[in-house]
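Exercise 7. Given the components listed, write out the predicted structure of the assembled complex. Treat all entries as one system.
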Amino acid sequence: MKSKILALLGSALISGTAMAGGYQVNLASQRQIGMGHTGTGLLTGTSSIFFNPGAMSHIGYSGITIGGSALVSKIAYSAPESGGVTARTDNPLGTPFQVYGVYNINEKFSAGLGVYTPFGSTVNWGDEWNGRFGLNQLKLQAIYVQPTVSYAITDKLGIGVGLSYVIGSVNLQRSLPVQNQDGTEGGIELDGGAESAFGFNAGIFFQPTEKFSIGVNYRSRVDLKVEGGDVMFSNIPMAARANFPEGANFDAELPMPSTLSVGIGFKPNERLTLAADISHVGWDAYEKLRFDFSQNVAGSPFSEAARNYDNAFIYRIGGEYMVNDALALRAGAYLDQTPVQDGYLTPETPDSDSRGLSAGIGYSVSENISIDASFLYINKKERTDAANLSGGVAGTYKSVAYIPGIGLNFKF
Amino acid sequence: MKKFFYKSSVLALMAGIFLTSCDPEIDVANPSSGELNLTKYVAVGNSLTAGYADGGLYREGQLSSFPALMAQQFETAGGGSFVQPLFTEAQANGSGYLKLTGFNPPAAPGASPSPILTPVTTNLAVRTDVAPLPGGPRLTKFTDPVNNYAVPGMSVLSSATPIYGGVNPHFDRLLADAEVGSKSYIAKVAESQPTFFTLWLGNNDVLTYATNGAVVNPTNPFSDKTPVATFKAIYTSLLGALAKGGEVEGVVANIPDVAATPFFTTVTLDAIRKSAGMSDLKVYIRVAEGPTGVRELGEGDLVLLTTQAAIGRVDQVAPGVSIPHGFHPANPLTDSEVLDKDEVAEVRAHTQELNKVIAEVAAANKIPVFDVNKFFTERFARPFVQNGVPYSSAFITGNVFSLDGIHLTPRGNAIVANEFIRVINSNYNTNIPLVDETQYRAVLLP
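Answer.
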C-alpha cells in the first residue's frame, strides 16, 4: 500500500504543458510528461486538478506540487526552391509551469487550486528572413488559475469541476514592406494583455477494480480577447506615416480550444502502471486571426488572415515502473495531429503532426517529499506548404523540441 | 542520496547539452548545374538586362540587374564569375536617374498624391570632354571584357548595324574607340564566346515607338516598329551567333505587353478626373492630323506616365485665349502624349508578331523561351502576394516597377531572375536555387 501511495505522490509532482498541436502546450505534470502526458484515467495526484478533477477526491491526501519545464524549441525553414535551410528560429527558452494545491476536506470532498499554462507560443524568426513581413516574432501567453472541487460519490466513482480564470497576453512583431531612402524597412508591433476570461474543467473518474480505472475530462474553450492593445510602428518613411498612424490601438481575439479526453489506467501488478489517453481538441474554433484597428493601418481598419484549423486528436500511451518503494521510472509516447490544413501553414505555428517521446524518473525523498524529473522530445514531421490560404510564408518547415522538467511534491 | 542527485543531474546536463545541440535539418536537393556549363555566362539584352531603373543606368541598378542575380545563384552550382560594366563608386550615379523626394498633396479630395521625382545630377559618369552622341552625352568607357553586354536602348534592328556604336552612348561605352561606328552589337557579343547565355532583346523594336505615343521620330532611324521580316533576319543571325548551332545553351526571353507597365496604366481617365476634382471632366486627345483628328479620351486609350505633368497646363492657344492642356478640343493632348486605342492594338499585334518570330527562331536553335509576355500579363498585371508583400503593376506602390514606370526595381529584377532560373531548371535538368527576392529593395520612400 505504501508503494502505491508513493507512486501516486510522484504523479503529482509537476505539471506543465508541452509544445503540441497549434499553440497548445501539453506540459501539465512532470510525472505525466514522463508517461507520455497520459493521466485522464489515472489518479495523478494533485495534478488531477488539470487531468481529471473527478479523480481529485480519490487521491486521499492533501498536497502541493510545484514544477516547471525548460522548453527548447527549434525550427528550420527552407524557402521554396532555395537549395538549403534559409532560416532558423532563435526562440527564447520557454518556461511552462504548474502549481497545484489540494486540500482533502474529508473522505468525500476535496478542494484545490491549480495554476498552469496550457497554451502559449514564443517563436522568433528575426527580421532578416524572407518571411519577415509575415512574422518577426510572436509571444503568446495564457495562464490558467483554476479553483476546483471534487466529490467522491462512491469509493469507485468521483466527479469534479474547476472554474478556470484565464489571463493572457500577446506580442506580435512584423516587418512592413515600406523602405526609407537608406533601405531600412518599417516595423509593426502589436502588444496587448487579454481581458480576463473564464472557462471550466470537469471530469469523471471511475475505478471499478484495483487494477483498472477510467476517466473522462473536458476542458472548455476560452476566448482570449485583447481590447485596446498598443500598435507601435518603427522606421516608417515620412511619406508613408499617414498610413501607419501613431497611437493606434487594436482589438483581437484568440480561442483557446476545448479539449475532451478519455483515458484508461491499468495496473497489471503492484509495481507497474500503464495508461492510454485519447484527446479531441476543438481547434475548429480558430477560424481567423483578425486585428481591428482604432485608426486605419495601411489603409484598412482591420487585418485578417484565415486560419481555419481542423479539430484534431492526440493519442497517448505511458507507463510507470516502481523499481523499489522510492524510485519510479517512466516512459511514454504520443502522436499529436496537426490542426493546420494544407495551404494554411504560418510561421507563427509552422505545425505538422508531431511525435513525442518521453522518459521520467520519480524519487521519494521521504514520506512527505518526492521529486519528479522528466524529459520530452518532440519531433514534428517536416512539412512543405504553399501557405497560400493563410497569407503565411511558403516553404518547408521542420520543428523539434527538447523539454526537460522538474517538480517537487509535498504531501501533508 | 547525494550521489544519486549528483549522478542524475550530471546525466541530465549531458543529455541536455547533447540534445539541444541537435538542430533540425531539412533535406533538399543540392544546387547543381545539370547539363549546363555555367563557367562563362553572358547576358545579351537592353536596358532591362543592364539593370537600368528609375530613368537611368546607375551602379545600384547594375548591381541588382537580373543577370547579376542569376550569376550569383549560378555560383552555388559551379558558375563562374560575372563581370559587369559597373560605374565606379565615384561615378556611381552613372547616367543620372530619378529619385522620389516627396509627394505633392492630392490636387483634389479623393485624388492620389502625386510623386515628386527629382533627377540625381551628382557623381555622374557623363563625359564633358567629348561631343555628345545623337543618343545623348557619352559616358565613361568600360572596354574590358564583360559578362553583361546589355545596352540600354538596344533593339534587334540596331544590333546589326556598325553605326550604332556612334549613336547610343551606352553602346559606345563598351566599345574601344576604334570599334565605335565600325563594330555591330552582334559582332561584339559573338566575340565573348559564352558557355551559357541569356538573350532578351526586341522590346525596343516596338516599345520605343509605343513610349513615344506611336509617333516616329524622323531624326531617329530606330524609333519605328521594326518590320517583321527584318526582325526575323537579324534575330536569326543574332541567336545563331550565340547558340552556334546548338553548341552553346541559353535562354531567350520575349517582349512583354505594352499595357503591362505602369508607364501606360497609371494616368487613367479616372485619375485625371479625380486630380481635377471634376467627375464628369472630358479629356481630349489628338489621334490624327487636322480639325477632325481630335476626340475624347475613352476606354482603352493609354495616357503616358510622362504626360501627367502636362495635363491641365494652361496654354495660350491664341492671343488672350488660355486653355488647360487636354481639357478642350482646342488644346488636346498631343498624339505623342497618348497611345490611343488603335495604336495599342497596333503595338500589341506587332508585339505578338515579333514574339512569334522569337519562338520560331528559338525553336530552330533548340533554345527554351521565357515567355515574359505571359509572365508580365499574368503575374504583374494582377496583384499578388509573395512572402507577405503585395505586388502589382501599380506605379510606386506595386513594388515591381521603378520610378520610370517601365523598368524594374531591384525586387522586380529578383522576381524576373527567379523566373529565368525556373525556365533553366525545367529545361536543363539543373537545380539552381532561387534568389530571396525580399533581400532586394523596392521603391524607396522619402
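Discussion: The first strand of chain A starts at residue 63 and ends at 69. Residues 223 and 255 of chain A are 4 Å apart (CA to CA).
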